[in-house]
Design brief:
seven-stranded antiparallel sheet, mainly beta, six-stranded antiparallel sheet, 348 residues, globular
Length: 348
């Protein structure tokens, strides 16, 4: 197979509205590349918002949902750009491109150009055979990239938004889309479907057995948890020595102290985090190397062989049990599974 890289198109910002690009249906998709370029203006009552930071990876919050839908009904990808940016960092061992230094803190800022990139993966990262999960678009009736835009205010912390006179104006914003595709897929080749989505669970009180039910029937490559309070990531929802447990009935697949799991994620995925999400440049890089705030990766494929995936086809239930601490007013745990669906067996 040969590799084709091409520009697909662009989508212009429309506050709180949904826009769709029809994707070409010729070849097998390895990935889609996204680059968001925005011009923003921020204002607030003098000094009222200076102590607060933007949300992580701003201006990614301008895109509050990304969906890939095939045949008008089959949702293959469904997540937000902020989280996708950080999922890319874990999967590809480096943080995607971002330029938002001019957006730190909460002071007035006029006509600031901000940029952030992300990648929608179909080929399986860190796998011996990445092509096992390509998305073959040939034969599909439709294939759509559906973008739901947010607002300029979405880029800032909830506390900043509450400040008197707080406002963010989107002067302009454009999402550029490109693709990497494989040409010449042999006839009859069948691929696993690399499906990703988000499940949200609200934390209403401290609880040593907060449970989140997961779907069964398919294969799990990995599961990522994201803990956030009042719009910002936090590690204090699962402080040491509180546990994250993945189990089916009495069978336990993972049981880890949250902070210890994050430390292992850092080493295994070669993460470099010199500063907390949302902060400015790291001033003490020589003295500290931090954890990816609020993210916890449960990985099943350790050596690139997809045969290691968690097979739930014979399980009657699957759940995550977490020892959680109530932190703020609006506390959530978002779960981002990477679920692989085997193709139907060909007729004899």
């Amino acid at each position: 197979m040969k590799i084709l890289e091409r520009e697909i198109g662009s989508i212009t910002f429309a506050s709180n509205q949904t826009r769709t690009i029809q994707l070409p249906r010729n070849y097998a998709y390895r990935s889609l590349q996204l680059l968001l370029i925005a011009d923003l203006t921020r204002s607030t009552t003098a000094g009222a918002g200076d102590a607060f930071n933007p949300k992580d990876a701003a201006p990614a919050q301008l895109i509050k949902n990304i969906m890939i839908r095939a045949n008008g009904r089959d949702v293959i990808k469904n997540y937000d750009m902020e989280t996708l940016h950080r999922l890319n960092e874990m999967r590809h061992h480096t943080r995607p491109y971002i330029y938002s230094q001019d957006w730190i803190l909460g002071a007035d800022a006029a006509n600031k150009t901000l940029k952030v990139a992300a990648q929608i993966d179909f080929a399986m990262w860190d796998a011996i055979r990445p092509i096992d999960t390509l998305l073959n678009s040939a034969g599909l009736a439709t294939l759509e990239l559906i973008i739901t835009w947010g607002t300029g205010m979405d880029t800032m912390s909830d506390d900043w938004q509450a400040a008197t006179g707080a406002a963010v104006t989107v002067n302009s914003a454009t999402l550029y889309v490109a693709s990497v595709e494989s040409v010449g897929v042999p006839a009859g080749t069948r691929f696993l479907v690399n499906k990703e989505y988000m499940l949200r669970s609200q934390v209403n009180a401290s609880n040593n057995n907060h449970q989140i039910e997961l779907p069964t029937g398919n294969l799990y490559r990995s599961i990522v948890l994201k803990t956030h309070t009042d719009g910002e990531q936090t590690d204090t929802m699962i402080p040491t020595p509180q546990l994250i447990t993945l189990q089916a009935g009495t069978e336990v697949f993972k049981q880890r102290i949250g902070e210890f799991l994050q430390a292992d994620n850092r080493l295994e995925k070669e993460l470099q985090v010199p500063e907390r999400p949302g902060s400015g440049a790291a001033l003490n890089h020589e003295l500290q190397e931090l954890l990816l705030n609020g993210y916890y990766l449960l990985e099943f494929v350790k050596d690139g062989r997809l045969t290691e995936m968690l097979d739930t086809s014979q399980l009657s239930s699957l759940k995550i049990a977490i020892d959680v601490t109530k932190v703020g007013t609006n506390d959530f745990i978002d779960v981002y599974p990477c679920e692989l669906i085997a193709p139907p067996v060909a007729a004899a």
